[in-house]
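ingest -> fold -> write
write: protein_1
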Amino acid sequence: MKTNLLIGIVFLTLLAYKANAQSATINSQIESKKSETMQQIFIDKFIVPEKSKQEFLERVRINRNFIKHLNGFVNDNAYERTDENGNLIYITIAVWENETVLKNAKEAVQAHYKKEGFNISEMFERLHITMERNIYKESEKI
């Protein structure tokens, strides 16, 4: 009787372990699918010296016009202000359908730069522009 009880406990423990492992796998798959379908919000913040403003804004215009035609582009917005030192603080927000199309868009932009012979790092260094770049997702409703 004790042997049967012990075998039963071991069997139930194994079933519970298998169920937990399957649950963890399913949860991982759900999270993976979520990131594939969740919109990606690409936010850049630039600090641009006054003397560099005109060239910078021309480049922004070119870039924004280019990305609007890429697959998976949802929309974009730009915001600006001038700080106490006269620098332009410029924020762009581009929304993409999901992580995959954002990755493809980044590659397309880099290919476009290469085709143009444009080097963004060189431009930022020459014009003394600094940038902070991050990718966000929409926050859950509170």
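write: protein_2
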Amino acid sequence: MRPTARLLTGTALTVVALGAFAAPAAYANNDGNHGPETLEIYPSTASHGTTVTVNTTACGKDGHGIGDANSLGAGEFRLNPSTHKEVVVGQFTVPQHAKAGVHWISVACDNGRTARGELTVKHREPSGHVKTGVGGSIGPDTAQVTAGAAVLAAAAVGGVWLMRRRASGAQGH
């Protein structure tokens, strides 16, 4: 029984010790004087040209704020009261020249409080078909590939036949 008692005592002391260190950190961001509040960002991962919506309760009921998306080159944007109680909302567009990676977006409210959150910018991967104006096919078509191979084979056989004919005709004169 002694090992079990030691295990339980050690576990209890660990929980109490961790709780003493974790509790103040959990409440630090809830007070506007100690740091920024959470800024909700949707979508949290975006590509160039995407319209991003941000919202927060930091500005309070009927509050306003100025958003800062300069870290990705989108400049400032306004936040205004939304249809949801005590939530302000604003939007900006991810510019074409924004670098891929994580960017901090922040808001300064008229009431002096702040909020911030992360936006991840990813480069859009090319998709679809290249539109060159020269034509092409939507996908590999077996009949077209076979017909193309037959045309190439016929041209090769014809070329060899013409070269042999010329060679044999040149020797006769």
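write: annotation protein_2
Confidence is low (pLDDT under 50) at residues 1-33.
The chain has two helices and nine strands.
pipeline exit 0
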